[in-house]
Design a protein that fits this description.
The protein has 223 residues and is of the alpha+beta class. It has one domain. The chain is 48% helix and 11% strand. It has nine helices and four strands. It is globular.
Length: 223
Amino acid sequence: MRIHPETFEFLKDLAANNNRDWFMAHKKDHDIAKENVIEFAGALIKALSQVDPTVDANLDPKKCVMRIYRDIRFSLDKTPYKNNFGIGKLNSGNNNVMHIGYYMHVQPDGSFIAGGSWMPENDQLKKIRQEIDYNADSLKKIVDDPEFVKLFGEFRNQEEKLKTLPQGYSTDNENIELLKLKSFVAYRNINDKDMTKEGIVDEIAALCSKIHPLNEFLKNAVS
């Protein structure tokens, strides 16, 4: 299973013609592209369940593929459609850890796989920071592993990070850079050539197997 080149072509054309008239005239092209992404999501779910037992192999891929329509109510950008397909809700389904899982982004020259927790709510963020404070060695063993760093980069250098100290922690805390984080995410870009080749689903699942220990650390923190 793979993303078809025609799916990327549709998204490129949509980005250049992001208006309702063009979209309605090419609705059939959208539907074909979306069906490709749904089939891709179905294969990815099955592969993920093999590397992370908490992912339900019977997840409905249609419910994991996000709508292409943008919510423009509070946005200065009034273009009505996304120029990508997102595949989310790739997690255990447990309400306590719903924000912890995997996310697949399908976009020309912008595809990536990600895992972890992006901007958790304050109560869960406090729990994660508390776990880091008590058990930082376990997290550092995961994110400082040479293979993890090679695949996903330096974990501490994330955009979602406090510029000041988190409440209750001091500058002399040896793990202060981890404690400043507001998101706990590992991601890797995937180029279009790789996304359109057979076998890419298994390669993505292999990447997620390296993110799985991070997800487990985060789940233990908030449970």
